[in-house]
Design brief:
The complex is a heterotrimer of chains A (about 240), B (about 350) and C (about 300).
Chain A: E1 5-16, E2 19-30, E3 34-39, H1 45-52, E4 60-65, E5 68-69, H2 74-80, E6 81-85, H3 96-106, H4 111-125, H5 140-151, E7 158-162, H6 170-185, E8 189-193, H7 197-200, E9 205-210, E10 213-218, H8 220-227, H9 232-243
Parallel strand pairs in A: 3-8, 3-9, 6-7, 7-8
Antiparallel strand pairs in A: 1-2, 1-4, 4-5, 9-10
Helix pairs in contact in A: 3-4, 5-6, 8-9
Chain B: H1 2-18, E1 26-32, H2 37-48, E2 52-58, H3 62-70, E3 75-79, H4 83-90, E4 92-100, H5 104-126, E5 134-142, H6 150-180, H7 182-187, H8 193-221, H9 231-255, H10 259-277, H11 289-295, H12 299-313, H13 317-341
Parallel strand pairs in B: 1-2, 1-3, 4-5
Antiparallel strand pairs in B: 3-4
Chain C: E1 3-12, E2 15-25, E3 30-34, H1 41-48, E4 56-61, E5 64-65, H2 70-76, E6 77-80, H3 92-102, H4 111-121, H5 134-146, E7 152-155, H6 164-179, E8 183-188, E9 199-204, E10 207-212, H7 214-219, E11 226-229, H8 233-242, E12 246-252, E13 255-260, H9 267-276, E14 283-286, H10 291-296
Parallel strand pairs in C: 3-8, 3-9, 6-7, 7-8
Antiparallel strand pairs in C: 1-2, 1-4, 4-5, 9-10, 11-13, 11-14, 12-13
Helix pairs in contact in C: 3-5, 4-5
Classes of the chains: A alpha/beta (about 240), B alpha/beta (about 350), C alpha/beta (about 300).
């Protein structure tokens, strides 16, 4: 890849008391890339992600997201990223329209912009008929697709997706990934964590974290060749098993 | 919505009507050793005021102790012998105002009011009397001669703490199990609902007893509060009240699904009424009739009556049996409702 | 039969959570309920563990009726709800002891059953359950559900949100438990776990779509799946979707699973078409069917 670096991480470390959750990790993510951030439970994925989106302060090391230092330029970092997690998606007791308006407002979009975006987004997702329904009444898959679109509302350079497809049915899961592809094609960088190993194959590059350290970082194909296995699942098992 | 709008309205009404340091309709007793025309006039004057209600007349000094113990009256007015004669010959006569100072504020107010009425009366009669007649009042404070506020706040704080720890903690700890999902596992186990609840409640009984003991010891040693009554009776009544509060906590937990609701219910539904309507800070007798009626369903009111009687007046069970029975009744009621409401299944 | 479910329906506020569900689980079987969130899996579990009363239908567990004999069922089953139901502020050992006590047994009595699993968490037995990693918590929860040697084990999404390593270990544990004669009903949203069950029920939106062994389900699937690969995956998906005779196009690991609905389908034609659309490094071959393919086609 000859593209620009959009996330640069140097020796990033986070300690909680005596426990090192993230231990001196370094990596780069390039513009327009789909970057898979994998790891077992408790490997430090979430902690690392929290530091990158500027809601957790690193103990040491530095990270530049969209060119801004996550320690000092937190506000600028937050402006240039979108974030979507499995747990917090949307306000269940607001309608789809209200949710979009609300999040648009948070990111400082004008009323006209919000109106236009809402229109476009609703048509893209095929939600025209349910726009005034409460988000809480939507199936999980739709909610996730909607909250992905909302995370993109302010046209961020990078989107962070924290297990976006957990518990979603297989078809919706694929549709979700097709949305991710479409967005990546537009040049948006996607930073995604998942527990589905087949989804790891969809990423351009994948990093695997084990006990606070990045054990492997490469394209899925190279990783499979390197560890001489047939699937990403086996790569993962091989790497994580060694430690236990 | 109800919590957002209903609660503030309820609170402001409660505070507005209940919080008053004025007194009305205070029950007093009269010991009239003279029984002459003058004392008769004074008594009429006093009973005509809105502040006092003459509850009974007693005939000798020995009865004073017993009417106070029963808690029927807040003050006793004693007219000396030969009142009218003293007034006419010596130009002065004495009235003794004996107040039940277990509630120092109320005691103070009562003696001030009586003084004012008597002064008023002397003014009236002195219009055609030269030299002026004088009615001297002598104030005596029963149970709490130094008017220490500790005498009210120790029983009050004890009541609040026991209510808080027992009701709030039980309800929260049971709803927490619902939230964590452990209740689901406990339900799908051979344990009977009764066992689950006793298991949850037991630690808090223990904790509350320790709390009660600490408060009493502090009151006794640090603030010099007397413990006049039987220590076992005191312990028995405290355990009874703890049980009442715990059963109330269980009841709250059966109707709330989350810790938050349990907390809101306990705080809003229990704490404030306990503080305002129990008679701890504001005399119940001065509240509007409606609030007086409502105060009867507040367990804390009965416990405060009991504990003050036992602590400060050395009352025995024959005096407070009624209040004790009320608490027992409430406890049985709460437990019965909880058992009925407790679900062996999820919603 | 260890579990018999007949026409169970349950609604919450007029919304049907499960609709006329029927299935049977044989003694000693490892039976999987496979479906996404909101399919009704948890409702089925709660009905069978006597926590919910169904609106319609009947069910028995270990020969006991879920309504009438609920006490007997509660005595003889182990249940691990979706959320990890442990006391976060008790240690590993205390949790286990607690659950042993409420079921009127001791750790020693049934130690054989949990030994395999417990030795893995034993080094942390003085640690508070709240401080355990996801995989560890799940092992502890399983120990707690097993401590009274239940005849039937209900595991509601035990592997959700758990990493692949822990998931794999967990299923190995289940296989060992099954050998000890315990009937296991397990639910999962992960389709790849389906093949590890003896028989599975595929459920979605409160209805069962199919019940069979995973092998049979795959065998009976009559469509041919092509694994297709190209350099630009997104472009490939878009182009395949435009191919006139396409039936379905789904990303599947490193390949795209493509199903065609034409009887005269020829992979060379498709190759030409894709090349014309400027796809490079094209690879087309016949692939293996997975449970997930079947599920998506139901």
């Amino acid at each position: 890849m000859t593209k620009e670096k959009i996330i640069e991480v140097h020796n990033l470390t986070k300690r909680f008391g005596g426990f090192t959750a993230v231990n001196n990790i370094s990596f780069d993510v390039f513009e327009g890339e789909i970057f898979g951030f994998l790891g077992a439970n408790g490997a430090g994925k979430t902690t690392a992600m929290k530091m990158l989106i500027g809601i957790s302060n690193p103990t040491s090391g530095e990270a530049l997201v969209a060119g801004f230092d996550v320690k000092t330029k937190t506000e600028m970092v937050k402006r240039s990223i979108g974030y979507m997690s499995q747990k917090f998606s949307m306000y269940d007791d607001l309608t789809i329209k209200e949710n979009i308006t609300f999040f648009g407002g948070i990111y400082g979009l004008s009323r006209i912009q919000i109106k236009e975006k809402t229109k476009k987004l609703v048509i893209e997702l095929g939600l025209e008929d349910v726009i005034d329904k409460l988000v809480g009444s939507l199936p999980l898959g739709w909610k996730q697709k909607l909250s992905f679109s909302v995370a993109l509302l302010h046209e961020p350079k990078i989107v962070f997706l924290d297990e976006p497809t957990g518990g979603v049915d297989p078809i919706t899961r694929r549709q979700f990934w097709e949305m991710i592809y479409a967005e990546a094609n537009k040049g948006t960088t996607i930073f995604v964590t998942t527990h589905y190993m087949d989804e790891a194959e969809y990423c351009d590059r994948v990093s695997i974290m084990v006990e606070g350290v990045i054990e492997a970082l490469d394209t899925p194909n190279n990783l499979k060749t390197k560890y001489n296995v047939a699937s990403m699942n086996d790569v993962f098992l091989k790497l994580a098993r060694n430690v236990e | 919505m109800f919590i957002l709008f209903g609660m503030p309205i309820a609170q402001i009404m409660l505070f507005g009507f209940a919080i008053t340091n004025e007194i009305n309709n205070v029950n007093i007793a009269i010991l009239d050793k003279s029984k002459d025309a003058e004392t008769h006039k004074i008594i009429n004057k006093i009973s005509a005021s809105a502040y006092f209600k003459i509850n009974q007349e007693i005939t000798n000094e020995k009865q004073i102790e017993s009417v106070f113990k029963k808690g029927k009256v807040k003050a006793v007015l004693v007219f000396e012998k030969n009142f009218i004669k003293n007034l006419q010959t010596l130009k002065q006569a004495k009235v003794q105002v004996i107040t039940d100072a277990t509630d120092p504020n109320v005691a103070n107010t009562i003696s001030n009011y009586v003084n004012a009425i008597l002064q008023n009366y002397t003014h009236e009669i002195n219009k055609n009397n030269k030299p002026n007649h004088q009615i001297q009042t002598q104030t005596r404070l029963y149970y709490n001669p130094e008017l220490k506020s500790v005498f009210t706040f120790v029983p009050g704080v004890m009541t609040i703490i026991l209510m808080l720890v027992s009701a709030m903690m039980t309800s929260i700890s049971i709803t927490r199990e619902k939230e964590l999902g452990t209740m689901e596992v406990l339900l799908v186990s051979p344990l009977k609902p009764f066992q689950v609840i006793v298991g949850k409640v037991f630690p808090y009984i223990f904790l509350s007893i320790i709390n009660a003991a600490i408060i009493l010891l502090l009151g006794f040693f640090v603030f010099g509060m007397p413990i006049e009554g039987n220590i076992f009776l005191l312990a028995f009544e405290s355990v009874l009240f703890i049980t009442t509060a715990l059963s109330l906590g269980i009841l709250i937990s059966t109707v709330s699904q989350t810790q938050q609701t349990a907390m809101m219910l306990s705080l809003m539904g229990l704490m404030l009424p306990v503080i305002i309507l129990s008679g701890f800070i504001f005399p119940i007798s001065s509240m509007p009739l409606l609030l007086q009626v409502i105060s009867n369903i507040i367990p804390a009111k009965w416990f405060i009556i009991i504990i003050k009687a036992v602590l400060l007046k050395g009352a025995t069970l024959d005096v407070i049996w009624k209040e004790t029975l009320i608490l027992v009744g409430m406890t049985v009621f709460f437990i019965a409702v909880s058992i009925k409401k407790y679900k062996i299944r999820l919603e | 039969m260890s579990i018999i479910v007949q026409n169970i329906s349950k609604s919450y506020n007029k919304i049907k959570a499960i609709d006329a569900i029927s299935f049977e689980v044989k003694e000693g079987e490892l039976f999987g309920l496979i479906g996404p969130d909101g399919a009704g899996k948890t409702t089925i579990f709660r009905t069978l563990t006597t926590l919910l009363l169904a609106n319609e239908g009947s069910a028995t567990v270990a020969g006991f009726d879920v309504v009438k004999d609920y006490v007997a069922i509660r005595n003889s089953v182990g249940y691990m709800p979706g959320k990890f139901s442990l006391y976060q502020d008790l240690t590993v050992e205390e949790n286990l002891k607690f659950f042993a006590t409420i079921f009127g047994t001791t750790i020693e009595e049934n130690y054989d059953l949990i030994k395999d699993i417990y030795i893995q968490i034993e080094p942390f037995k003085t640690r508070r359950a709240g401080a355990l990693s996801g995989g560890m918590k799940q092992k502890l929860a399983l120990c707690c559900a097993l401590i009274h040697a239940p005849k039937v084990l209900f595991l509601d999404e035990p592997t959700t949100g758990v990493d692949p390593v822990s998931r794999k270990e967990f299923w190995e544990m289940l296989k060992r438990l099954q050998k000890k004669g315990i009937t296991i009903l397990v639910s999962t949203p992960y389709m790849d776990e389906a093949v590890l069950c003896d028989r599975i029920a595929l459920i979605q939106k409160g209805s069962i779509l199919k019940i069979d062994s995973p092998e049979n389900i795959i065998k009976k699937y009559d469509k041919v799946i092509y694994n297709i690969k190209a350099k630009n995956r997104h472009q490939l998906i878009l182009d395949l979707k435009k191919y006139p005779s396409q039936y379905s196009v789904f990303a599947f690991g490193e390949f795209i699973h493509y199903i065609d609905n034409s009887s005269t389908f020829n992979s060379i034609d498709l190759q030409h078409y894709l090349e014309k659309q400027n796809n490079t490094e094209i690879e087309i071959k016949i692939g293996n069917t997975t449970i997930e393919d079947v599920f998506m086609d139901l």
